Amino acid sequence: MTTDTPAWTLERAQPAANLDVFGVRVNIVAESADTGGACLVTRIFARPGTGAPLHRHAEIERFHVLRGCLSVEADGQKAELHEGDTVTVAPWVNHRFWNESGEDAEFIAVATPGGHEKFFRDADELSRSGRFNPESAAALCAQHGIELVH
To answer: Domain Cupin type-2: where (predicted)?
Structure first.
């Protein structure tokens, strides 16, 4: 049996973009173009006191903590995740994450299906432009199908 699809591929490490997404550093590991649209894989670094506000969207999100401690709230329930812990949030469930510890947190986030990388790049541009404020952040989220929950 022959196929045009290789049995495996090797990708050498490339310098990852350091995207500033409203105070959290996001590195894109594999975007939807790399996964055939299946998912977006990011490595996220959250300093103490940083995180994402309560929101919801169409993608499934899975967070896996590599280092530190990460607080997650989903569907009104809070969990504190430590190194090696993983949580999965279903589509359209209100959720947020934040680092309330005194140490940096690092985690992998997988969004399924892919496509969310455009939001991260646009958020980085907004953060670096000097035009960032709550209204511009909310408008950007809405533009990308992210509903902020108040």
So the answer is: 48-110
Q: Does domain 19-148 have CATH number 2.60.120.10?
A: yes
Nearest to 101 by CA among 51, 26, 42: 51
The ranges assigned to domains in the chain are 19-148
Residues 6+ apart with CB under 8 A from 85: 64, 65
* E runs forming strands in 101-144: 105-112
Tell how far CA 7 is from the center of its chain. 29
Among residues 39, 47, 40, the alpha carbon closest in space to that of 21 is found at: 47
Strand boundaries in 1-150, DSSP class E = 19-21, 24-30, 40-46, 51-56, 60-67, 69-74, 77-82, 86-89, 95-98, 105-112, 147-148
The label of the residue with tokens 């646009």 reads 122
Cis amide linkage into residue 113, ω under 30° from 0 = yes
Is residue 121 within 8 Å of residue 78, measured between CB atoms? no
pLDDT digits (tens, 9 = 90+) for 53-107: 999 999 999 999 999 999 999 999 999 999 999 999 999 999 999 999 999 999 9
Could you tell me if 114 and 39 are in contact, meaning their C-beta atoms sit under 8 angstroms apart?
yes
